[in-house]
Amino acid sequence: MAKKKFIYFFGGGKAEGNGKMKELLGGKGAGLAEMTNIGLPVPAGFTITTEVCDYYYRHNRTYPPGFDKELSRNITRLERLVGKRFGDPDDPLLVSVRSGAARSMPGMMETILNLGLNDVSVEGLSKKTTNRRFALDAYRRFIVMYGSTAKGVPRERFEEEFNDIKERRTKVRLRRSTVFDTDVNEEELEELIPILKKVYKDHTGEEFPNDPGEQLRGAIDAVIRSWMAEKAVTYRKVEKITGLKGTAVNIVQMVFGNMGDNSGTGVCFTRDPSTGENTFYGDLLMNAQGEDVVAGIRTPIHLKDLERIMPKVYRQLCQVRKKLERHYRDMQDIEFTIEEGKLYILQTRAGKRSPRASFKIAVDMVKERLITREEAILRITDKDIEGLFYPVIDPSIPKEELKKYFFAAGIGAVPGAASGRVVFTAKDAEEWTARGERVVLVRKETSPEDVGGMHAAKGILTATGGKTSHAAVVARGWGKCCVVGCEDLNIDYEGKTMKVGNTVIKEGDEITLNGSTGEVFRTALRLIDPELPPAYDTLMKWADRVRVLKVRTNVDTPYDAENAVRLGAEGIGLCRTEHMFFDTDERRIAIQRMILAENEGTRKEALEELLPFQKRDFMGIFRAMDGKPVTIRLLDPPLHEFVPHTEDEQKHLAQMLGMPFHQVKRNISRLHETNPMLGHRGCRLCITYPEILDTQVRAIMEAACECKKKGIKVLPEIMLPLIMDAKELGILAQRTREVAERVMKEQGVRVKYSVGTMIEVPRAALLADRIGRIAEFFSFGTNDLTQMTLGMSRDDAGRFLPEYVDEKKAGILKTDPFQSLDQEGVGLLIKMAVQKGRKANPSLKIGICGEHGGDPASVEFCQRNDFDYVSCSPFRVPIARLAAAQAQIRWPRKR
Amino acid sequence: MAKKKFIYFFGGGKAEGNGKMKELLGGKGAGLAEMTNIGLPVPAGFTITTEVCDYYYRHNRTYPPGFDKELSRNITRLERLVGKRFGDPDDPLLVSVRSGAARSMPGMMETILNLGLNDVSVEGLSKKTTNRRFALDAYRRFIVMYGSTAKGVPRERFEEEFNDIKERRTKVRLRRSTVFDTDVNEEELEELIPILKKVYKDHTGEEFPNDPGEQLRGAIDAVIRSWMAEKAVTYRKVEKITGLKGTAVNIVQMVFGNMGDNSGTGVCFTRDPSTGENTFYGDLLMNAQGEDVVAGIRTPIHLKDLERIMPKVYRQLCQVRKKLERHYRDMQDIEFTIEEGKLYILQTRAGKRSPRASFKIAVDMVKERLITREEAILRITDKDIEGLFYPVIDPSIPKEELKKYFFAAGIGAVPGAASGRVVFTAKDAEEWTARGERVVLVRKETSPEDVGGMHAAKGILTATGGKTSHAAVVARGWGKCCVVGCEDLNIDYEGKTMKVGNTVIKEGDEITLNGSTGEVFRTALRLIDPELPPAYDTLMKWADRVRVLKVRTNVDTPYDAENAVRLGAEGIGLCRTEHMFFDTDERRIAIQRMILAENEGTRKEALEELLPFQKRDFMGIFRAMDGKPVTIRLLDPPLHEFVPHTEDEQKHLAQMLGMPFHQVKRNISRLHETNPMLGHRGCRLCITYPEILDTQVRAIMEAACECKKKGIKVLPEIMLPLIMDAKELGILAQRTREVAERVMKEQGVRVKYSVGTMIEVPRAALLADRIGRIAEFFSFGTNDLTQMTLGMSRDDAGRFLPEYVDEKKAGILKTDPFQSLDQEGVGLLIKMAVQKGRKANPSLKIGICGEHGGDPASVEFCQRNDFDYVSCSPFRVPIARLAAAQAQIRWPRKR
């Protein structure tokens, strides 16, 4: 049996390991080996395998026989290769020591830098850098890191001594009340070092090790012991990580960019991270260390200047760039250091980029044959698409300015930004907009009555509610900037002001909302408008060709329908009929008359009045969709949402309707419900008042017939909400078909239509086999299905849901179940319903029309469960198209 | 092949068919054959088989060859046997014709009586009965029945003519503005008959058939055709009745009790239906027909008088009594007619009986070895038990008196009756009761704050809410008479009055509630108090020996616990901790202080205050239950249920708490929720405020430890409500166990306890495998589980649920899902959860603690799904015990 190898060396252009040996070398060690192998000038070093860690714990905390020798051999090899020696008084070898398992894992030991420094070698570093203060400071840091990280000395103990020096010496010398670490000078550091060593000795009972070999053994020990640290063990338990052997230990040569004018350090991107252009882009500081770059005291020079100063190094860097893109097939973010004219690549990783750049790089790389179209599609995220569509606050505005105007923070419900004058009523929003103002509507909360004003406003701000409150849901449908749940806001409707603490904003004052972060600013900040780059069109075309899942949209008006088609919608998955009733005063009064009717007769009359409005809307929508399927949901919300609740408004309504006030008041109070979400709404309205169904179906079918006669293609799908029983659906579907047939007979034309149901009540999902025999399609209403399955009202969840999704607190749910489908719970119910439904009726068409239809993880769920389509708000249509393509690549399905 | 037999004769002591031939002879035909076979003097007749009907529809609506001959033969046989002939001018044979399939089925033809009458035979009937008016009226009825039922002449057409005679002749003759059918005399009937025959001819185009044979063929035709009547076909479709051949036709000799003084008609019971005594009991009218008994004009004589008048007939009847009880092994309700000294048994069926009689008869019959104990158990219904326990309005109060005092009708939520003086506030109810008044508490709706007053009152009446409203649920727990949803009620709290229309009831006026019917009377009616008969104890002992399912109870106080144990409870399945906080002002203030606390510190202080109260309650309950398991649910309702909502009350509270009013108001308004059922409640309170859990667990465990030290056995089971996730339960169960261990250490004693969860959120049921790994028991909270699974708030369902359960309207649900478990939907979820839970944890204890635990059908469901126990309100414990025994008999399970 061959002897086991415990240490893998890398450096000088080749490595003993490679990128595939993650299990043995850990992620970091395998990466260093890989970079070395592809010829990058990586600092040399070696990796102690995970098997050593495994052996250590299996053998009563001892190292395998022969390990010491192998370690010595590798140290010698490293010294030879880099031409430096541990503890050298002129040019000492310094190394970093890092842990690294096959999977990244919090709770294990972090980096120890500058290992190898001692009272002798610190002078060597000082000579090489001609900066004694730097060398002493590096030594100080090493003592603290080694003491605290490897030996468990409380970091505060070191800090106390450092602070003492600062107080006693630095402050006195500078005669300032505040001093920084960087103010401490050479002498003061020289005084500090023996003090720190004493702290070390007091705590550990041992002298601080001067021998770099001993330092190294201590650091290796510390890394291996950290594998069993409580935090790391807990993490593996919680995340169910099993089967790992242990951690590897990486020992790597330290390099310094502050060794003189032929040294430097920098960061570069293989392509422009903000435009995506295929140009080399980067900054560096000459004669400087990483810390100097972070401190931002000196201004960096550009990469092209390096070409002038050190053309050889620049050419080498260009080769690295090419090599890295070839190898990793993605734009890279590279950290490098030049030590005395020698280039070292310290790290490379996929570079962060702007949304525009994401598209440009993905599409360009396909053209350059670096990646396939499928890979390009997988590289784009939903955030990339969002970033292209919404206006944003000009990123060049300095942070201090933002801070100065900061007013309050709520929950960012719809991304993007908006600015305008504050108004406090929907009516004002409409009127001010009509006279040319840009306004932001501010409300405690919004209701369906506010929809007109919400539409008119540039942005919406509410004091209450979460991401799925009325305001958020409606605004999301339009892609309109919206901040909700801004709880510090004190709104005074009568005084027309809002206050946070003592800061008051009055009607007409300008504010800006950041819908991505939830911030509110008390001025009109500069916004940058969105513009779609050509790469977007190319990539989305590819995505459309790949995907199988259809993408529809949730819209209620012809205007929104047209917009959604432009964004790629292939049909309407949810057309809510209730919003139509708030469009004008005329309509509002008609629906209110219907609701307050005291008998079937007057109710029917009021419904007759509404019919032409609805019909006109449906015709507009059919025209806009031009033959694409249009799913129309019959009236869904509880009726009290349509009527006013203040006495004044009720009095006004009584006058308008010619009804006694007390009667209006009484009828409205009768509509009150304890839990309206679970009340008299949805198809239950049609069971108790079948004339509501009759009128709506008539309006849909008359519109469809008239469109067809005009040569417009139509494909209406009539959808019944809140179904919980097969017999219930049977009764209503039959009535729907009877009305439809009657209308077609009257109109003398036949139109293809279908009748289906939302699945949004858990019972409907459980009985999907019976319901599937009657329905022609299922559309999962995952908003309500989530509320009912979790027993969680989205309007009220704000007080406890944050704790549930916050990993640092209870962390019970992985994500907000109203944002991304709860696949474990609700998903199980949906799976069951799909299987039962399709078994009973193989031709059942299945879609989703909840908020989740535009969430990539939920779209993937739909792909895997054989849905026919997803439907989402227009502004999420592109995201859903992309997600559907990605899902098809990951979970291919037959077309 | 033997020739098929189409007609089965019965009469003269023997029948060609028997009771098992339901498929061939229909239920009715088989019953008639059976009665004949066991030697009862049943009128003779014959049954045409269902195969004839089948043949008819398979052969283009024709009768099988040979059928006519067989029919003639049977008519002749019948004429010979009874000694009468069709159409005889002196003593005609008359028959009834009835349909009858193997299963009873609405929509088919009903009875035609007196077939065989014509212008000649009517005179024969007149002679025999010496009552020409009777004979003519029978003829009139026959023409109408035959015309409308068999030939489809609109019944109104006949009615119009009858009314015309009444208007034109009877009214004029009697000089009265109102006349009844019985006022029409012989001459007027004589005039009417040719007119009715003309109506018949005008509609059918044929003369009314004079030939009884032709009449009979017409009636047979009509019965067979009614098999395919739309209503019957729909019924079979809806009820999924398939595999039936068709309907049979029963032709039976008519007998008359008005043929002179040796004739008569009556009804008797084989035992006393009100006491259950084994004595023969009955009434009869001599020389009278069934109609005369119904009309109630003449006073009937008792059975013992018959012994004197017609001793032979009486002895025969006694033999019938014995024979019937032997044969049917149950108390029978017998209809008989004596025609000229000859006894005919027209019908026998299991007799309706009072609750006391039910128990007495069942127990007696076991002693008489007529039935087994199991059969005795199966004979008792939940209504029988209810009837024993609740006071009722004296049934001897005449209907007119009830009518006179009728005030309003609501929904009967808890059966029984109550009377007392009206009060409108819970406080008044307590105060008036304290000074010795009997009161009925009247509220628009009740809330937890009213519980004290509700308990003090004799009965509760609310204007809103359904059977599962707060008032109904709380009252049911106490078995206290309660009427809810009395929507006509106009309550004026300030004026202390309630009105229905113009009738006003003031505070202090007496009313009576009938909790079974929902009626409200505006006086104090006489009530009869319940008393348990000895047979009850005997039968319940048998039931307890039989059943496997344990029966627990839902109670919150030591007093109720003791009561429940007396009623047979074997543990507490649900002890709600929230009601404890309303017991006194002191407690109320403490919980309110806790809720309005602005930080953890003050919240903890307030909780400390509550701890001793809770502990005292728990000790009382443990003492009452003496070692029986006690499941205690941690705080469940949303916090706003504990605080006042009017400005005055809030001001008062602010004073009591020493907090500024605006702060109290703001903090309370922050508690407002849109859908409180799905809000911040249940275990969510413990996730956000873990100190609530700590205090409650501490109170439970301190109480348990102290009890144990005093020698009282304790078995606490700590239950977490509204769990929806395994991790959520894991966090809370761990914290619960930590607190419990800490308390036991402090107290120096160990107590056996367990930690489990309610399954009331659909997600918890779906993920029962994961949750089952952590919980030691599941208790299905079917109230909330039903609300969430059906998406139906029980507080709001009143506006549509009646339509859903009303068979005459939509008829979507078979029963109110809040009364009896929705086995199709919610049941499916429960089944799944039980299977998953037990698979993950075979020792999982499973129970139910929703309202359904006391519903017999739901108890059977629990038996079939391997539950360990059911838990219900104390007053339903006996019902559950019985239902559990019945379920074990029907669906035996291993012990």
In short:
With 895 residues, chain A is α/β, with parallel strands linked by helices. Chain A has 35 helices and 34 strands. In chain A, α19 (470-478) links the parallel β19 and β20.
What features would you highlight for this structure?
eight-stranded parallel β-barrel; elongated; eight-stranded mixed β-sheet; alpha/beta; 34 strands; 895 residues; 17% strand; homodimer
Structural class of chain A: alpha/beta
Molecular shape of chain A: elongated
Question: End-to-end span of chain A in angstroms?
Answer: 53 Å
- The helical percent of chain A reads 40-55%
Q: If strands are numbered along the chain, what order do they take across the biggest sheet of chain A?
A: 15-25-24-17-18-19-20-16
Structural notes for this entry:
2 copies of one chain form a homodimer. Chain A contains 35 helices and 34 strands. The first copy, chain A, is an alpha/beta fold and 895 residues long. In chain A, strands 15-25-24-17-18-19-20-16 form an 8-stranded mixed sheet. Chain A has an 8-stranded parallel beta barrel with strand order 27-28-29-30-31-32-33-34, surrounded by 5 helices. In chain A, a hairpin with a 2-residue loop joins strand 12 (332-339) and strand 13 (342-350). In chain A, helix 4 (121-129) crosses helix 5 (132-151), helix 5 runs parallel beside helix 7 (186-204) and helix 34 packs across helix 35. The first copy, chain A, is elongated. The interface between A and B is large, with 48 and 48 residues.
